[in-house]
Amino acid sequence: MTVARGPQAAYDADMLPEQPASSYANDPATATVVIVTEPTRPNLHGDLPARLLLDAASHLVGLDVAPDSPERVIVMLGPHEKVSRTEQVRVHIEHGGSSFRLQGHAAKLVTPGANPYVF
């Protein structure tokens, strides 16, 4: 299964361990983005490598956490088809893999304010 098609596809994989985000907060004043989801990865905690999945306007579409680990999880806010690029970052994970915090440079890569994929 292809996730994104065409020469501009920034994200392609077969079966992905994916789950939807349940909440999203972006505070540009503190350069912090927090994404919350169901706690399905209790072994994920602390600072880990991740990939921001961004659309053409740098809105966060998803977060690919620990991409080279068996504990990998992809938290999606929007549809795969909207991903136009990825950025390597570090993410802080808490609460049994349910809270993902981007801070500093990583958070500044995301367009501040409301996310068009969160209603």
Structure characterization notes:
The chain is mostly beta strands and 119 residues long. The chain is globular, with a radius of gyration of 13 Å. Strand 7 (85-94) and strand 8 (99-103) form a beta hairpin. Helix content is 3%, strand content 39%. The longest helix is centred in the last third of the chain and has 4 residues, at 105-108. An eight-stranded mixed beta sheet has the order 1-6-5-4-7-8-3-2. 32% of the residues are buried. It contains one helix and eight strands.
Short précis:
This protein has one helix spanning 105-108; strands spanning 18-20, 23-27, 32-36, 46-54, 60-65, 73-76, 85-94, 99-103. The chain is mainly beta.
Brief descriptors of the model:
single chain; mainly beta; globular
What is the total tally of β strands? 8
Order of helices and strands: EEEEEEEEH
Strand coverage percent: 35-45%
Report mean pLDDT, rounded to a whole number.
88
Low-confidence stretches: 1-9
Per DSSP, the total helix count is 1
Annotate the secondary structure layout:
Blueprint: E1 18-20, E2 23-27, E3 32-36, E4 46-54, E5 60-65, E6 73-76, E7 85-94, E8 99-103, H1 105-108
Parallel strand pairs: 1-6
Antiparallel strand pairs: 2-3, 3-8, 4-5, 4-7, 5-6, 7-8
